[in-house]
Specification:
Mean pLDDT: 90
Helix content: 40-55%
Distance between the termini: 64 Å
Structural class: alpha/beta
Shape: globular
Strand content: 5-15%
Radius of gyration: 22 Å
Largest sheet: 5 strands, parallel
Order of helices and strands: HEHHEHHEHEHHEHHH
Length: about 270
């Protein structure tokens, strides 16, 4: 009897030690699981990625327990084809470092990235024939040099309904959105990748309230302050797995009521 009691006492002690010694670990794969989470993001894109990340640091810092580190492999007007071509050039010539003195390989190896985003240049976003084989080449490069990173597909937005480029491309605002939406869905499905749905949010916002202007007054295709904030809220929600309505940061040049509306759109 005494031996049985000792046996169960040893089991109890062992279980107690195990319970206290096992600490929870947090892996950041697009959602926030703990107060000390920091999501490390590398963007491979162009000015539309710059727009989406314009307020992202401030947005993230406004939500308790959320932190973000952003590095950019962005070049103005850079398409998937050009990014893929730069990978090839940098492979052939180690001195080819187009991203502010670094190659994409350098950037991919510079940190343990949680997320790497890819996107098409806006002028090709609705042209399905422009995505491949270039997206595959970029994703394969990412998988080789940042194997632990999760690919995210950034769905860019359609141009403003009054943008002159739409006429030059012989396409309407709604047609541009429908085609780019389909192309980005195809891309996300191909890599089993989450989609940063900036384009969907722009389209929904325009549908709900046309008076909230999301586009730059100078060219009508880059994002205005409203558009940058909306895209940033979308990115926050998707990356951290939290409602954008938790965001408290409001840029100085956006009215509080407008910011609230944009956060609500981003949350849908």
């Amino acid at each position: 009897m005494r031996q049985i009691k000792l046996f169960f006492l040893h089991i109890l002690v062992f279980c107690s030690i195990l319970a206290f010694s096992v600490q929870p670990s947090f892996a950041v794969t697009g959602s926030s699981n703990g107060a000390s989470d920091t999501i490390k993001v590398l963007t491979i894109g162009n000015s539309f990625a710059d727009n989406a990340c314009h307020y992202l640091n401030e947005i993230t810092q406004s939500v308790e327990g959320c932190n973000i580190l952003i590095e950019k492999a962005n070049l103005g007007g850079c398409s998937l084809e050009r990014h893929a071509g730069l990978i090839e050039k940098s492979t052939e010539d180690p001195n080819e470092k187009p991203y502010k003195g670094q190659s994409l390989k350098d950037l991919l190896q510079s940190n343990d990235w949680d997320v790497v985003t890819i996107q098409q240049v806006s002028g090709n976003s609705f042209r399905k024939e422009t995505f491949q084989p270039y997206a595959d080449q970029i994703v394969n490069h990412v998988k080789e040099y940042a194997p632990g990173a999760q690919i995210y597909v950034h769905e860019t937005w359609p141009y403003a309904p009054d943008c002159k480029r739409l006429g030059e491309y012989s396409i309407s605002y709604k047609e541009m959105y429908k085609k780019l939406n389909k192309n980005y869905k195809t891309l996300a499905k191909r890599y089993d990748a989450p989609k940063l749905e900036s384009g969907d949010a722009f389209f929904l916002s325009q549908k709900k309230d046309k008076d909230v202007d999301l586009w730059s007054p100078s060219d009508r295709y880059h994002a205005s302050a409203n558009g940058c904030y909306l895209a940033g809220c979308v990115w926050f929600g998707k990356l951290f797995g939290m409602s954008p309505e938790k965001i408290t940061y409001v840029p100085d040049d956006i009215p509080a009521a407008t910011a609230k509306f944009l956060r609500e759109i981003a949350a849908k």
